[in-house]
């Protein structure tokens, strides 16, 4: 039940020396403020880094060939080999738990520049020979037309899906590229789709300068035969590609007579493993934020406990009179605890409010940033659970801060308190 006299007494006690009260409350304010800001900053950094992965399937590994480093079955070390399209079926048959296996060939990029022309316009772009599954592993947004399908694969159709950067360099403004032809190293390909794509490596412009063609048409047009440049392999959701990676490599080593212990012959990049490391890093950062924020908050709580001890000392005679008039120990204890909790919650909620306002302002600034800005910091925020945890910490802290002063107050004998000047 609300007791006006009690709250008047609390406010009078806390405002008797308002400057001291403000300085004491600032410790709790600063502790909760730092805690929320650190957690929001950690979340913003996590969002920015994960945003850098784009929509790429993180349970994926990429695999390519390297020089063999050990002799095996009469074959020398130092030899080179190529993946074959038959390796794809072998992996699919012998390694359960895989969702997608996408062989890929590439012109441009690390394999050197290539010429793509249309009329008098010329450009150097990455050209990929792909299967339809690649769009599920490394998603792109089809802005017009369609992506490569299995009809294109089976018929070896010379069709192409081009990025916005390719359209800009090869076509005039307002021209519809669908149905038009481009020449890739002298071979005509008809444009069947255009796309936009979020960069996974921070280079948003270059990610729009790519061309996707059917794997079979690529192999036929550029004389790759059965050769596969590299593969993107994704595991099922209930599996980890990291756990299946060894089995996949064993199949390749068997097919190409590579020593089972030759760990350098098959190059790979395990995206899932890297993603787990990043997740672990942010869990650690969150733990540091809680640790630092809690220590700062603890110093504020100690300050409140000290000030409440001083308040009890100043009100010794008042407490003696109340005890002499019949006030119970619980009434005295409750009064001191209530004052402590009130001061803690008010200062703590002020810290939450100010930190939330700052986070809101930062988000507004980030929203106003250019859309193609590949920032490593995005949408700093604090989960609602954290707010409830903070409230629980504040209430608990207020109780702890007032507990010792309350015990001191009720241990004072009425007669001794009345003698105090």
UniProtKB/TrEMBL annotation:
GO molecular function terms noted in the UniProt entry: transmembrane transporter activity
UniProt-annotated location(s): Cell membrane
Domain spans labelled MacB-like periplasmic core: 21-247
Domain ABC3 transporter permease C-terminal: residue ranges: 291-414
Cross-referenced PANTHER family: ABC TRANSPORTER PERMEASE YTRF, MEMBRANE COMPONENT OF TRANSPORTER-RELATED
Family under the similarity heading: Belongs to the ABC-4 integral membrane protein family.
Name listed for the protein in its UniProt record: Putative ABC transport system permease protein
Naturally occurring in which organism (per UniProt): Aquimarina spongiae
